[in-house]
Amino acid sequence: MEDFRILDLYFDRNESAIEETDKKYGRYCRSISYNILSSHEDAGEVVNDTYLKAWNSIPPSRPDPLKSYLGTITRRLSLNRYEHINAQKRGGRTAVALDELSECISEGEDIGESVALSDSLNRFLGGLSRDKRRIFLRRYFYMCTVSEIARDFNMKESTVAMMLSRMRRKLKMFLEKEGFFV
């Protein structure tokens, strides 16, 4: 079903909107959540929470594209759950990816809440080649491992790791020029 039809179901307050959303984007949302939480059970709960949040926010919003909107909600909810679950411990793919990014962004910066930082990140990503941008997002948005990225891009893990290291270094310099102090 096309996104505009799914959105019409939300606007009509038709509960089949959730079913159609799950048919089209359920696997995508579960993948995002599982990559962060490493638990199918937790990922399933987050996806259900994503649908509830979408139900409560559509209307009035009419997100375009719907896929990105749902992905962003899923990611935020998954990171919140990850933080709650791991309040006393560190480990796993999410912690490693977030630790890598901490080289560029100080702990005091809240990535999700800072509009200025978000705009700067978008400009930085816009200046990368398509493949580099996809690799960066796979690692730091979707929380994929270096080995998963290497496999999907048909590259060596060491090549991907080096690309990510260089991109983080460039991001740090870019953010310093933008006035973000690390």
Elements, N to C (H/E): HHHHHHHHH
| Residues in β-strands, percent | under 5%
Write down the overall mean pLDDT. Answer: 86
Domain count, please report it. 2
CATH class categorisation of the largest domain: Mainly Alpha
Stretches with pLDDT under 50, minimum 5 residues: 109-113
Query: How much is the radius of gyration in Å?
Result: 17 Å
Total strands: the figure is: 0
Helix and strand composition category = mainly alpha
Helix fraction by DSSP (H/I, runs of at least 4) = over 70%
Task: List the total number of helices.
Answer: 9
Q: If classified by CATH, what would the architecture of the largest domain be? A: Orthogonal Bundle
- The 3D shape can be described as globular
Q: Kindly identify the CATH topology of the largest domain.
A: Arc Repressor Mutant, subunit A
Main sheet, how many strands, which sense, barrel?
none
Cα separation of the termini: 45 Å
Structural overview:
This protein is an all-alpha fold and 182 residues long. It folds into two domains: 83 residues, Orthogonal Bundle (Rna Polymerase Sigma Factor, Chain: A), CATH 1.10.1740.10; 86 residues, Arc Repressor Mutant, subunit A (Orthogonal Bundle). 72% of the residues lie in helices and 0% in strands. It has nine helices and no strands. Helix 1 crosses helix 2 and helix 3 packs across helix 4. The longest helix is centred in the N-terminal third of the chain and has 22 residues. The relative contact order is 0.10.
Task: Give the helices and strands, then pairings.
Elements: H1 3-11, H2 16-37, H3 40-57, H4 66-85, H5 92-101, H6 115-126, H7 130-140, H8 146-153, H9 157-177
